[in-house]
Amino acid sequence: MSLLIADEITKTYSATGWFRKQTPEGKGVREISFTLEEGSCLGILGESGAGKSTLGRIVLGLLPPDSGTLTFRGIDLYRSGRSERKQWRRDIQVVFQDSYSAMNPRMTVQDIVAEPLRNYERKSSKEERSAVAELLELVGLGADDMTKRPKQMSGGQLQRVNIARAIALKPKLIVLDEPVSSMDMIIQKQILDHLKELKEKIGTAYLFISHDISAVQYFADRVAILDRGTLEVRESFDPFT
Amino acid sequence: MKDRHKAFANLLVRRRWMLYLSLSVLLAVVVCGIFAPYLAPHDPSFVDFSHKLESPSWDYPLGTDQLGRCLFSRLLYGTRVSLGLALLIVVACLLSGLLIGCLSGYSGGWIDHAVMRVCDAVLAFPSLILAISLIAVWGAGWKQMAIALVIVQTVYYARFVRGLVINLKQQTYVTAARVCGTNPVRILMRHIVPNMLPPLLVVVTLEIGWVIMDISALSFIGLGIQAPTAEWGAMINEGKSFIRSHPRLMIAPGAMIFVMVALLNLVSDAFGENKGFGSPLRRKSKST
Ligand SMILES: Nc1ncnc2c1ncn2[C@@H]1O[C@H](COP(=O)(O)OP(=O)(O)OP(=O)(O)O)[C@@H](O)[C@H]1O
Ligand SMILES: [Mg+2]
């Protein structure tokens, strides 16, 4: 059975309020279907405004779709009970594009990475420290970065912290919403390599959202193209066919 | 270009300087209030008709009032009442405003709608008038005044906090926290409230000044702090019969109110400029 099955998912942004005009067609996503196997990586390619982040938010459970179903490990996510929802929160994590704004500027790296652990597991502060140190090491940071605040780190380092937070709960799926788009080529490759390695180590699947064809080619097992809200899954990587 | 740079830097330095000066004067007043029992030369409510309406002297630094009480001592003790009560009221407003604003702003939907309609209803009245009507129902006295002011002011805080919450709720780090399983209460406590402290600080310093004026105004018209207690507004009221013969009875407490409010405004402005936002909470013009 597939890890994640999206079936005819539609979400259009309609202007709410009494006096505003309806937004024109094409905002959001329409009748999207795809499947994602355990431990694999699906690349979602699309230009700006195509609805990539919208799709990501739906998968993350942040944006209920207008219609269609999303099945994660056999459970219909948007029609599930509380406890299933809680498990789902645990099993699907995210890395956003803007690494800096994805972190509370007032918290230390340790607090940031430990946040998911604190939500689901009871750990003594010593256990927590070693868990965080281990996670930081997994993403190529040192234990001495633990006491730093986001302002004291570079973009690449920050994104590694984000990744450490995302893998803290050993999720089944991570939504990567343009995780490397704001970085230069060398750092991009380093981070993508790291993500690949993590995929082997903890066996997570990725939904890799990007507008960069070469990054998707390098990183994803399969690719789907999102064009003005509709998704087309390609078997071959050649984007021009 | 360079000149302009320099002028700007100068301005900043001068502002800093002003901030520190205002803060130290404020602190000095607070300390004087706290240590009033040790600093005051006389008991503030000790009536001595043999010394009534005396001019300033070594024994009575600011002279005495119509009952022969030491004006300077009364001012000192008045600091405790005015500042202490203002602080108490502002803290109470802040807590209730935080609670209501967070609930309303974070949950959204019909809760938000209901809360905001209630706020609109309260805001439709000038706040002092509303406070006066509440006191009219409950009777005069400092407790009634404090509760009335808290109720009236909480609305401003709630609205302000709600706006900040709605803004911060959209931050990516809040979304990230939701995704990693943090519950709403924790999100508010750890991610939202700490990040709205700087603008709240600006508002709170400004508000303390406003509340000092409100307390004085209500006490002046006899609705707040009652007669024997030394309080600036009540002192002005008592002194008003002697405005021609002994104006210092009114001027001294009036000057204290003016200085405190002005300093708090300066500090609030400086905080605001420092943090890159102007005064975020403009209250409707008030008839004080
Ligand atoms: N909350 C919203 N309300 C209304 N319209 C929205 C909202 N969020 C996004 N949209 C619209 O939906 C469309 C898709 O947005 P989305 O953020 O999914 O694009 P994207 O593919 O992620 O683009 P980018 O590459 O720039 O991140 C855009 O046209 C956008 O204007
Ligand atoms: Mg996007």
TrEMBL record, chain A:
<dbReference type="Pfam" id="PF00005">
    <property type="entry name" value="ABC_tran"/>
</dbReference>
<dbReference type="InterPro" id="IPR027417">
    <property type="entry name" value="P-loop_NTPase"/>
</dbReference>
<feature type="domain" description="ABC transporter">
    <location>
        <begin position="4"/>
        <end position="241"/>
    </location>
</feature>
<dbReference type="GO" id="GO:0016887">
    <property type="term" value="F:ATP hydrolysis activity"/>
</dbReference>
<dbReference type="InterPro" id="IPR017871">
    <property type="entry name" value="ABC_transporter-like_CS"/>
</dbReference>
<keyword id="KW-0067">ATP-binding</keyword>
<protein>
    <submittedName>
        <fullName>ABC transporter ATP-binding protein</fullName>
    </submittedName>
</protein>
<dbReference type="InterPro" id="IPR003593">
    <property type="entry name" value="AAA+_ATPase"/>
</dbReference>
<dbReference type="GO" id="GO:0005524">
    <property type="term" value="F:ATP binding"/>
</dbReference>
<dbReference type="InterPro" id="IPR050319">
    <property type="entry name" value="ABC_transp_ATP-bind"/>
</dbReference>
<dbReference type="GO" id="GO:0055085">
    <property type="term" value="P:transmembrane transport"/>
</dbReference>
<keyword id="KW-0813">Transport</keyword>
<keyword id="KW-0547">Nucleotide-binding</keyword>
<dbReference type="InterPro" id="IPR003439">
    <property type="entry name" value="ABC_transporter-like_ATP-bd"/>
</dbReference>
TrEMBL record, chain B:
<dbReference type="InterPro" id="IPR050366">
    <property type="entry name" value="BP-dependent_transpt_permease"/>
</dbReference>
<feature type="transmembrane region" description="Helical">
    <location>
        <begin position="118"/>
        <end position="138"/>
    </location>
</feature>
<keyword id="KW-0813">Transport</keyword>
<dbReference type="GO" id="GO:0005886">
    <property type="term" value="C:plasma membrane"/>
</dbReference>
<feature type="transmembrane region" description="Helical">
    <location>
        <begin position="247"/>
        <end position="267"/>
    </location>
</feature>
<feature type="transmembrane region" description="Helical">
    <location>
        <begin position="20"/>
        <end position="40"/>
    </location>
</feature>
<comment type="similarity">
    <text>Belongs to the binding-protein-dependent transport system permease family.</text>
</comment>
<dbReference type="GO" id="GO:0055085">
    <property type="term" value="P:transmembrane transport"/>
</dbReference>
<dbReference type="Pfam" id="PF00528">
    <property type="entry name" value="BPD_transp_1"/>
</dbReference>
<keyword id="KW-1133">Transmembrane helix</keyword>
<feature type="domain" description="ABC transmembrane type-1">
    <location>
        <begin position="79"/>
        <end position="268"/>
    </location>
</feature>
<feature type="transmembrane region" description="Helical">
    <location>
        <begin position="81"/>
        <end position="106"/>
    </location>
</feature>
<keyword id="KW-0812">Transmembrane</keyword>
<feature type="transmembrane region" description="Helical">
    <location>
        <begin position="200"/>
        <end position="227"/>
    </location>
</feature>
<dbReference type="InterPro" id="IPR025966">
    <property type="entry name" value="OppC_N"/>
</dbReference>
<feature type="transmembrane region" description="Helical">
    <location>
        <begin position="144"/>
        <end position="161"/>
    </location>
</feature>
<keyword id="KW-0472">Membrane</keyword>
<dbReference type="InterPro" id="IPR035906">
    <property type="entry name" value="MetI-like_sf"/>
</dbReference>
<dbReference type="Pfam" id="PF12911">
    <property type="entry name" value="OppC_N"/>
</dbReference>
<keyword id="KW-1003">Cell membrane</keyword>
<dbReference type="InterPro" id="IPR000515">
    <property type="entry name" value="MetI-like"/>
</dbReference>
<protein>
    <submittedName>
        <fullName>ABC transporter permease subunit</fullName>
    </submittedName>
</protein>
